[in-house]
Amino acid sequence: MLLTTVIFLAATLLGGWAFVLLGQRGLDNLSVILSFGGAFIIGMCFLHLVPESFSASAFAGVWVLAGFLVQGLLEYLSKGIEHGHFHAHEHDEHCDSGFQWNRLPWAALASLALHAALESMPVMDHSHHVHHEGHVHGPLALNMIDWGLVVGLVLHKVPVAMVLMAMMIEQHVPRRTAWIVLIAFGLSPLVGMLAFEGLFHNLPHDVALVFPAWMQALVVGILLHIGTTVLFEAGDGHAFNRKKFVATCVGVGVSLLAFL
Questions:
Q1: Higher-confidence residue: 9 or 109?
Q2: 6-39 CB burial, b ≥16 within 10 A, e <16
């Protein structure tokens, strides 16, 4: 869990640093990055998470639908930051009056944090471990990490962090405060992983056996909502062009190489 936390935090900080370094150039190429990541995530879902979760539980489909609906609600609160939407605020006389905490998009931040926590819950793979056997988890238990999901989430977090940093800078949030917020967002997956561990080890034996599959299916619904929106939504930043098509094909190809 320690290793995955460091990886997710590093990916988040990388996205923030990429915007600071590249500025508008980074946002101009964001659709290509999102297309690659979205295609990889969809491939990962159908080649990895869906087969595992559906083979372990007959109710996996219900959890996929639940994840799809939950993500719809989260995107209503975040205004679509998860798939690259960036809504500039209108500048007025208050912009020069100094920073105020109410300028932070608290609903969007809470939505992003919950999204990051939920999608990270099944990162530690318990599907081959018997509940309450007393196995040792260790901070670097590499054999218990679902590396396919980790890679997919990293590809998702970097552009989200870019958009989040861009939004905060555009709303005149001081750089130091923006980095603190980004660090807090980068640590959100830890909350999800800890919640998963707490639930898993306190559930009845028969429920614990299928709980990892349920959480995998929930994440499938969340990620399919994100991936399909990135690839197929029309409008600014989502027009399907040659660069996006190539990035999509590369993303699918990489997922085939990784999971077949």
A1: 9
A2: ebbbebbbebbbbbbeeeeebbeebbbbbbbbbb
pLDDT beyond 90 at 174: no
Cβ–Cβ under 8 Å, residues 157 and 11: yes
* Mean predicted lDDT score pLDDT of the chain: 83
Q: What b-and-e string marks burial along 77-113, b requiring 16 or more CB atoms within 10 Å of the CB?
A: bbebbbbbbbeeeeeeeeeeeeeeeebbbeebbebbb
Beta-carbon count within 10 A of 251 CB: 24
Q: Is 127 exposed, middle or buried (0-12, 13-18, 19+ CB in 10 A)?
A: middle
The residue ranges of every structural domain in the chain are 2-21+33-86+99-259
Are the C-beta atoms of 46 and 216 separated by less than 8 Å? no
Q: Which residues contact 153 (CB under 8 A, 6 or more apart)?
A: 8, 11, 119, 120, 123, 189
SS3 state of residue 39:
helix
Tokens of 101: 């905490």
Cα 85 off chain centre by: 15
pTM: 0.85
